[in-house]
Amino acid sequence: MKNIEKLINGTRFQCQGSGKCCVSRGGYGFVYLNKKDIKRFANFFNIKKKDFIERNCVKEDGYIRLKEINLNGNCIYLKHKKCSVYAARPEQCRTWPFWPENMNTKKWKKEIINFCPGIGKGKFYSPKEIKKILVKEYKNN
After folding, report:
1. Beta strand 57-60 with 63-66: parallel, antiparallel or unpaired?
2. Which of 22, 43, 82, 129 could form a disulfide with 75 if both were Cys (CB 3.0 to 4.6 A apart)?
3. Of the candidates 100, 99, 75, 98, which has an alpha carbon nearest to the alpha carbon of residue 88?
């Protein structure tokens, strides 16, 4: 997280609903869930947490993650290139693009800016705000 100050002097970001972040890019494919995410989804679908997990998740190595569509790794809630559960989306999705693995100047400039159409648009996030998002993500997982 110390790289955040080196990353940028802050950036603008607003989700554009492109669905690009819902499509598997190799090692970036899994969407991991914390307890709050599971509760949020169960409430969204008006089902028990246990039922949500059984129908929609995979338990692996002590973690719970969403199933993918077939073998392509895309999110099961990606419908017509849009998130069909946007209001209930997991913390991992809510904190994009401010993930620890993205907090590297080289990666940010080479990959993230070109990948995500929401970078440079909308609300301005200071390095302090980005760091707060990262800390929150660490605490939730």
Report:
1. antiparallel
2. 22
3. 75
79's torsion region: left (phi>0), alpha (psi -120 to 50) or beta?
Answer: beta
Q: Whole-model pTM above 0.85?
A: no
Q: What is the DSSP letter of 51?
A: H
Query: Tell me: the pLDDT tens digits for 119-138?
Result: 999 999 998 999 888 887 66
Query: Taking Cα atoms as reference points, which of 19, 24, 8 lies closest to residue 120?
Result: 8
Cis peptide before 97 (omega within 30 of 0): yes
42-59 pLDDT, tens digit per residue, is: 999 999 999 999 999 999
| 75 DSSP β-pair partners | 68
Q: If you count DSSP H runs as helices and E runs as strands, how many of each does the chain have, helices first?
A: 7, 9
> Could you state, in order of their start, the residue ranges of all structural domains in the chain?
4-140
Mean pLDDT, the chain, whole residue set: 85
Only one residue has tokens 């669905």, namely 19
